[in-house]
Specification:
The structure is a homotrimer of 230-residue chains. By secondary structure, the first copy, chain A, is mainly β. Helix content of chain A is 0%, strand content 29%. Chain A contains no helices and 31 strands. The model of chain A has no long low-confidence stretch (mean pLDDT 93). At the A-B interface, loops of A face strand 23 of B. Chains A, B, C: Pfam families: Hexapep, Hexapep_2.
């Protein structure tokens, strides 16, 4: 049984599985699928053709999954676009915006007022602070931390596996400190830290830690002088 | 009320909201959602599980939206793939092809015979000329202009916000002149111009204007000599 | 007529067209569309809101399509995520994992136990060996070969058209030999070969063939010395 208040605006062909809890004044678009156990706060707006509350899957060559995750919990005032997918075991804060075609994995936390852009992806075990912006088509790999007010430009890429599957390595995504800004299509390597309020140029490859308040660019990324040259 | 001619080939579980106008000999795939006010020309073919005619959304931290946009208008002979999303307030020309998983925002104009590839994204307020090719996973940011016959390679990235949200800045995407070709995974910075028939190498970062008839490559992109070296 | 065994777990609003053959103990999620002629092996699990068995399409400016392809054939034990699209004329091996939002074109072969990541794309006429990993948002262009045990990092980009549509050119994707590993967001040019067990750095642009057992990085990619410098 699920709890769907009378003031829910339900589209056509919506599927709501068991044990779904829906708050007051929620809108759910057409052809959207809400899987078992999903919890949706008040005033949430969900677009068309989404899939919410997905259980983890994989094949024998993929990382072992936790045996059990909790529900997907979408807090009040958040908006989910169209054709988006979000996993069970993840917490979406208040007044968050998730774009069309975006995908968010399990065991992720997204802080209040953050924006996950169109077709952006956030992998498992990642923590996104408050008021972050993850732009279109950006890729936040697993085991990544963004503190508050971080800006991830369009098409930014991250990785969390130093040996690309060749050796045992504790998967470790980037750690991006408060106020840092990553330019479009930059590449961040496993485990690197980007310091507070630092800026990474478009197309850079960040292979080492970047201190606070630095501007760096290039492949590999190097600190720019005050005149903008390396 | 909507106008759906008898010769429409309608899939199963298609949702057609109010005030949709459909031309002659249109095909609409299964599980596709056509939202209010969408206008579809003759001989248009739309795939399965699409969402067409989306109204703009956002949260308090995102760009203020126009109060009102017109309809989505798809002109005759165009084809839309599967799992694609297109917004209201956009005009798709004649004989255009939009790939699967592609997403096109509001207030966009796409010229006749252009191709928007699989999972490619065109953001708001952008103008795409005739016979352009935007390849797979390419990202056309907001406020961008492509003249006619422009080629955007796979995974090309663009940005339109010089200060990444840190300062007030009039958002300004790239301006790409007729016949220019952008190599795969190149990064284009806000407001840069690429000249007529110029060629940008794969993986380049274009940080300054590029004149007509130039080949440029590297991070940052520099003009190549006739022997292909910088 | 289609063959759907009684032990099939069928979601709601699933569309199964004619001549679909489904093996034993198959699960199909809600709102998924299975198009004409698709063949699904035993113990396959398919997510929600997918489109499987798509026929090729295009407009007058795109590559001429083959007149006829066979069915989509998904072999036993494979898992397809949510909101994925796969074309007719393609063969998915045993125990393969295809992520959410992924898209696989026609005339593709994917070997046993391989993984195609979330929102990754494999274009037409490509051959993927056994036990390959294609990570999230990676782009495998048309006419590409991956031998066995190849690792393609997140957001890797490839191209197959040397002249970007300007001249006649036989389309020719990269050829990546067994055990090679491509770092995240690297760009591979048309027709290049990456040798056995070679490693390409994150953000590199590979413009020439890379021999066996080499590590290369940079734009353009150059061989690294043993101390990691160019």
């Amino acid at each position: 049984m699920s709890s769907v208040p009378e003031n829910t605006q339900l589209g056509k062909h919506v599927v709501i599985e068991n044990n779904v809890v829906i708050g007051e004044n929620v809108t759910i678009g057409h052809n959207t699928t809400i899987l078992q156990g999903t919890q949706i706060g008040d005033d949430v707006i969900i677009g068309n053709n989404c899939v919410l509350g997905i259980k983890t899957s994989g094949n024998e060559r993929m990382r072992k999954k936790a045996d059990k995750y909790g529900s997907l919990n979408i807090q009040s005032g958040s908006r989910i676009g169209n054709i988006a997918s979000i996993y069970a075991g993840t917490d979406i804060g208040k007044n968050v915006f998730i774009g069309d075609h975006a995908s968010i994995r399990e065991n992720v936390s997204i802080g209040d007022k953050s924006v996950v852009g169109r077709a952006a992806i956030v992998e498992l075990n990642s923590t996104i602070g408050d008021s972050c912006t993850i732009q279109t088509l950006a890729y936040v790999t697993g085991d990544t931390t963004l503190e508050d007010n971080v800006f991830i430009g369009p098409c930014v890429s991250m990785s969390n596996d130093k040996y690309m599957g060749a050796k045992n390595f504790t998967l470790n995504g980037p750690y991006i400190k408060s106020g840092a800004k990553i330019g479009n299509n930059a590449s961040l390597l496993p485990g690197i830290t980007v310091g507070r309020n630092s800026i990474i140029g478009a197309g850079a490859a960040v292979t080492k830690d970047i201190e606070d308040n630095i501007t760096a660019a290039g492949v590999p990324a190097k600190r720019l002088n005050s005149d903008g040259n390396k």
